[in-house]
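During the reporting period the student researcher (J.K.) took over the structure-prediction task from the postdoctoral fellow and processed the backlog of single-chain submissions. One of the processed entries is reproduced below for the supervisory committee.
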Amino acid sequence: MSKERNQAAIDTCNQRIRNCRSQIVDNQTQVNNLNSKITRLETAVLTLSSQKESLDSQSVQVRTAQSDFTDWKGENRIQYTEQVNSLDSVSFQAYKIQTNHAHTGIKEELSRLIEQKISLEDQILSLQNQILDWSNDLEDLMS
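J.K. obtained the following structure tokens:
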């Protein structure tokens, strides 16, 4: 191979290696950003899971409270029953449903981000392998 063709091949290998390294840096930056988002979403999932358990517990407490005062009579029973029923009202149930939807949505987003992170990490490995291949080619060209 002529010296000029050899130098052109060396330059091409070096450029490919630089491009791969640049892409690795870009991908790693994206992975770091995703890790930050994933951590925040994991915290949100834990918080919502705890709130869901609390809501379920409160709902049970309300239903238990309704049955505790069955022997009350008159105005006190009516007022108490209205207050207890308002605690387990449609708006409370709607809040529980919205909390469940938010929990599900966050878990879905968390899964999507984890898949995206895995894909970027796979790309990084592929780029590192390409660098090794081109480094070997470069070594052959220089010897």
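The committee noted the following: The chain has a mean pLDDT of 87.
J.K. will present the remaining backlog at the next meeting.
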